Amino acid sequence: MKKLLAVAFLLVLLPSPLLAATFNPNNILSDHELMDYTSMGRDAIQQFLEAKKSFLAKFTAPDLNEVTMNAAQIIFNAATTARINPKYILALLQKEQSLIEHGPTNPSQSRLDWATGYAVCDGCSTDDPLPQKYKGFGKQVDGGAGANRFYFDNPGKFNFRVGVTSQVDGTAVTPENQATANQYIYTPHLHGNENLWKIWNRWWNRKYPNGVVLQAKDAPELWLIRDSMRHRFASKSIFASRHNQTEVITVEPAELQNYDEGAAIKFSNYSLVKSERGMTFLLVDETKRPFLSDKIFRQFGYHPDEVLTATDDELNEYKNGRFISEADIYPLGAVVKSPVSGELYYVHNGEKAPVVSEAIIKNNFRKQKVLTISADELQSFKLVKALKFRDGSLVKATEDPAVYVISDGMKRPIPSEATFLGMGWKWGNVQTVDRLSLMIHPTGSKIELNQVN
């Protein structure tokens, strides 16, 4: 197997603010990312090409066996045969010839004939006789995928190896995994491999909205995305006090690294905790409410054995709430009904938030009885904005196919089925609600599968 090098076609890359981490030449892709050959079906590949407005979306060509078919089918077949991730093949086509985005609307035949740079070495001409048997879009896609499978299965045949340091463009590179070693065998240059890394991260490392719960493959930890950071649930019981297991989205470990790690979530909802200074708080959702005195703490029927110890840093993650006093009838919050109008409110922390539907009650509280209280008692609470769906909720209006994810109190449109499934959401988690329940949420920016922001 001859040493295969990349063609010197460079693409213009857009800025990528999501990638807080800088390019690590020792770890370009994980082995799983390169080998996950079932990550996209033929239809998903076609939808991706169409979404990118790629020339390849309507392009047909002979495959390896001279059977004419569309580009998506050629890519899918090569991925399946070589057991190489079709996402990698798409990224390779972009890295080598800009055939997916930001390239010419009508690429030259030469770009198509040498689509993956397979069998073309530095300083070689595509007119040389030796690479002619690899000329053609179908053969190039098959060659690029097949070469990566061969490198992976025969690591001892090549100079670039896991754990072995080599000089690449004057920089010492020590591949941390075989997928990274593969890239230097294919393209022994830093710039080309950094381009591949940028493309991969721009396309495939998704940006999740606040309120989503993520879990890395084959890892037990659960993470809440909040304030664009990842917060680990200290235990499954703490997670279960706030979320359902069906809400969890499984992602690649590398995707979690796109988020800085924030403080762990160490307390279940409605926990009693004591600060370093000896003050006792009741934690309700994202708010900490201090008890006015130990006497009031006991009056509510709580026992000191129920109180957990919390550091000041842990408590700083919670917003400050009002003191719990003798007059505080509903320290845990309650859904109440007006005896006059029948309107519903959520009362907590001295405030009343209108509740426009039972769907919002069910979304926020698993078991919450509606209490009817007097008009005078209801009047004593300060009126605030209406209660909204929990962040991370998937909702749609009756008789309207549009689906939204709630994030930061806004409804963010999910523009397509491909985006919905690509983000890892499940149709069974979508709640159908009345239009008024949606209208109280301002419309935010749409979710984009390949968005980098």
Offer a quick outline of the entry.
Residues 1-20 form the signal peptide. With 453 residues, the chain is an alpha/beta fold.
Give me the secondary-structure topology.
Layout: H1 31-35, H2 42-51, E1 60-62, E2 68-70, H3 71-82, H4 86-97, H5 109-113, H6 137-153, E3 166-168, E4 171-173, H7 178-186, H8 190-204, E5 213-216, E6 223-226, E7 229-232, H9 236-240, E8 249-251, H10 253-256, E9 272-274, E10 280-284, E11 287-290, H11 294-299, E12 307-309, H12 312-315, E13 319-320, E14 334-337, E15 344-348, E16 351-355, H13 358-364, E17 370-372, H14 375-379, E18 382-383, E19 394-397, E20 403-407, E21 410-414, H15 417-422, E22 430-433, H16 435-439
Parallel strand pairs: 5-8, 9-12, 11-13, 14-17, 16-18, 19-22
Antiparallel strand pairs: 1-2, 3-4, 5-6, 6-7, 9-10, 10-11, 14-15, 15-16, 19-20, 20-21
**Whole-number total of structural domains:** 4
Tell me the overall shape: elongated
Widest sheet: strand ordering: 12-9-10-11-13
Distance between the termini: 41 Å
**Could you estimate the helical fraction of the residues in percent?**
25-40%
What is the residue-mean pLDDT, rounded to a whole number?
Answer: 89
Largest sheet composition: 5 strands, mixed
- Uncertain stretches of 5 or more adjacent residues: 1-21
- SS-based structural class? alpha/beta
The share of residues in extended strands comes to 15-25%
Total count of helical runs of at least 4 residues: 16
- Rg, rounded, reads 28 Å
Strands, total number: 22
Keywords: Signal
